[in-house]
Amino acid sequence: MAKGFFISKSLGVVGLVLGLGAVATIIALSVVYSQEKQRADDLSSQVPSSTSAAVTPGTTIAGTAQATTANGTAQATTTKPLEPWDHMRLPKTLMPTFYNISLQPFLTEVAPNLYIFKGNSTVDFQCKQPTDLILIHSKKLNYTLQGAFLVSVTGVDVTAPAIHSTWLEEKTEYLVVKLKENLQQNKNYQLHAVFTGELADDLAGFYRSAYTEGTATKLLATTQMQAADARKAFPCFDEPAMKANFSITLIHLPHYKALSNMPIKSAKQVTMPGGEIWTQTEFHPTLKMSTYLLGFIVSEFENVSAIKNNILAVNKNVNLPSTVKIIMDRWTLQMGFPVLTVDTSTGIISQKHFLLDPESPVERPSPFKFGRSSFSFSSLIQSVTQRFSSPFELQQFQAHNPEGRLLPSACPSPALH
Questions:
Q1: Is pLDDT above 50 for 336?
Q2: Mode of pairing for the β-strands spanning 296-299 and 316-317
Q3: Count of beta carbons in the 10 Å neighbourhood of residue 85
């Protein structure tokens, strides 16, 4: 007898249903594909012929980019060439040599939750290659017009060409100055600016910060220029390789103290237009350094310094008098020598008196600022770790090279910090 096999009725019904479903799906997908293809063909036929030009393979048209079609021909599509101010990096045509900067922070509101600072600056620069364009970094600064332009340009050893136009490029953070003629190679010029900026609480550029002392909330104005926020405090060539000397002047109310990278040169009382008396503190010019190493602070904090023979200890900005001043007195000044010494006659930095590893990473010279939480502890409850870590942290920042880290870096790098 022949052998065979049997399929149950229910299994046969299921198989039939699945087969019909598969056929229906294939038909539906075919219809959808046909409709989409027809729609794409219709859109292609509506493209104006004036927007592209057929060219033979292997040829290019200046100012255009090529796209190859299915039949092997190429179509040229027009692209706009980048302007100098569209690039993120500065051109090598200009090199700054000296900045003269004056800033006046207002630590009272001018509007709800709005604090500002006013400033003016002059930057000396040398033309390395003939150019009719000045690009200088600027971020969130509002300029007072000088005639019809945002800034003015004068010559030091030559007559400066007239300005054609000025404008701000927010995307690349440039102030652009277009001149009517080229600057001359190896000649020196000055760019003058008057501006206003927001003293925001964003920890960038020239900003404000708040702290409590007892029951009072107090404000200070300080800086964080690294990596590229000096441009938020004043117009500058804000790249590490663009090193220059800086002269800083801070105008503040008399009960505030001002500190910067260098010792105070002079401090005098000045009368403002409204009759109010302010203090104008001018600092000695810095050594040649990058913009991101610049620092200054206006606060009610005390500062401690020590002078021994011809050796000058770097000023130390101490955060809150009731805690950090005790730390500095106990661990630094009472040691009988400054932590960081600079021979004022030769400029040589001595590391033999460091209280921590001389090979520790260095960033910037004084002033130094720290968050309150770092040192806000009761004198009655102090662990051994707190007693040692607090002065060590203070001195770590003092072990920074005041010559502005003599590295030829062209742009900020985490490896440098």
A1: no
A2: unpaired
A3: 18
